[in-house]
Fold this sequence. Notes:
FrzH/put_lumazine-bd, NTF2-like_dom_sf, six-stranded mixed β-sheet, 3 helices, alpha+beta, Nuclear Transport Factor 2, Chain: A
Amino acid sequence: MPPVSWSDPTSSATERYSLLLSSVQDYLDALYNGDVPLFERVFHAKGRLTSTVEGQIIDMGIPEYMKMVAGRPSPADRNDPRMDQVLHVSMPSPTTAHARVNDAYLPKFFTDDLTFIWDDNRWQIIQKVWHFTLI
C-alpha cells in the first residue's frame, strides 16, 4: 500500500501510486532514450528544471530542455550503461508527489529530485532539481 492516508472518490490511492511509479519510469526511459515526445508527456508544460552549477543557478523551461535533449545523442545511442535507480517515491496528497532518482549522462552521474502534480488525470513533473558528479 502506498504511504498515504487520504481517499479520493475518483481514483484510489493505490491506483494513483501505481500511475506515479509509471510516470517515474517514463521519465527514466525518456532520459535514457532521448525520447522527446515521452518527455513532453511526463513533464508539465509549465514545468521547470533548476540546479546550481559552478556557483551559477541554472533555470530552464521545458521547451529549452527539449531542444537540448533533441540536439544531443542519447545514452542509448552512445551505448552507455543504464545506471538509473529509483531511490524514493512519496505521494503525500492526491495532487502532489515526489521522487528521487539517480541517472547518468556520462561522464555525469545525477541525483534528480522530481516534484509531480496530478493534472489532466495523470502525474506530471512540475519541478526537477538536480545535482551531478563526474564519474
